[in-house]
Specification:
- This protein has a two-stranded antiparallel sheet with strand order 1-2.
- The longest helix has 43 residues, at 2-44.
- α2 (64-82) packs parallel to α8, α5 (159-181) packs across α8 and α12 packs antiparallel against α13 (349-367).
- The protein is mainly α and 377 residues long.
- It is built from 14 helices and four strands.
- 73% of the residues lie in helices and 2% in strands.
Amino acid sequence: IMDIFAFGIKIVENFIICATIIFIISISTSGFLMPKINNLGLRMNVIDIPNTRKQHTKKIVRLGGLGIYFGFLTGIFFLLVIRIFFSKDIFELNQLIPIILGSGFLFLLGISDDFKQKNPYLKLILQISIASLMYSNNVKLEAAAVPFFNLDISFLNFQELFIYLFTVFWIVGITNSINWLDGLDGLAAGISAIISLGLSINFFHFQQFDLAFILIAFLGSTIGFLRFNFYPAKILMGDGGSYFLGGFLSIISLKGINLISQLDNAQNESLALPFLVMFLLFCLPLTDLFIVTTSRVFQGYSPFYPDRRHLHHKMLNLGLSHRDTVILFYGFTQLFVSISLYINGVEGKLIFLCLSLILITLCILYCINFKPKLKKK
């Protein structure tokens, strides 16, 4: 028994070491590239121009997504290298290829828009095409338990149609919701980093190590960029970065649900990461997406009509500062992620939940100084 225990500890130590190295490589690559990409953007005049909707008052390069993407690819390359030292059953490349390709296509779509702005409806069609490609490569919701009702969508006659529509909605919706959150410095990148950390903990818990490690690479590259994007931002991620962040998180969450559901069915356990947990992880961006699109449509505007209806704009209108709003949204996102860990039965769930409650309390106390601003107004 002691030998088995020692062997298990050794495996855990190896995984921790690998995750740490992947994170360090990704964050270092991303951080190292940002100043160089900023200079490149200045030379190529890929610059975001201030207007009435935007918070920044000076021209800023919007090519930061390049650094995020190449930092992520560097971490993936190291993941392929360390795969040599582990069982191939743990690292299955065929599970990772659709995720890398799908998020890569969305990155290319976004970065091309950074250079030359496209019609929003054309971008929507291309996003739906990429989501359909993911569906054809088995990145889709297959058999998922619906919380509180204990229903299975497999009984529906239009099962495949429902699965396809949900897959397209999920990938396209999350991609655009993260893109729309990129209205304040550090908001989209920070929220994406928190969500990816929650997903990686879930995947480690359910022994989906390949997905967990690829999320660590994503987390490192995103934080490396956040160093230059937190208020006041020195560089913006652009559509290339936001499309990559949203596309990657939406695709890997769907892929993870499929793999874990297969594991649960084999073990006769309840499905992990059900609808409720998925929506908890992405609660803030999806809520913002729903509020903005419905309000625009009901008032006769296009869903893509640019305005200041987003949640972060509403917080700014209440009197919160730029930094206060971002920190408050970080706290709420971390709270939702911790609730998802609690529902999934991850070890140490109460610790995560209590720490998140403390964090959100500190965020509220930090932002409480907006009351005098309201009185002045």
